[in-house]
User: Fold this.
Amino acid sequence: MSATHTEQRAGEVPAAEPAAPAYSSGFGNEHSSEAVPGALPVGRNSPQRAPLGLYAEQLSGSAFTEPRHDNRRSWLYRIRPSA
Assistant:
């Protein structure tokens, strides 16, 4: 009997198929997450008023000499501003 072949014995429950991976939504196919439902603005990154009275901050992850299309940024919505 090969190692890949499995037999179902009496009283055993067959193993379930693995579930498809759950992907997070995001802006431009990038990751987004929220601790409180409704905390992220829908369809825009920097609204004039952030939801739930949060402060919007942008953190750059690239050198300022990078071309604009290569820049990586993170939008943070904080309870209190960092500065």
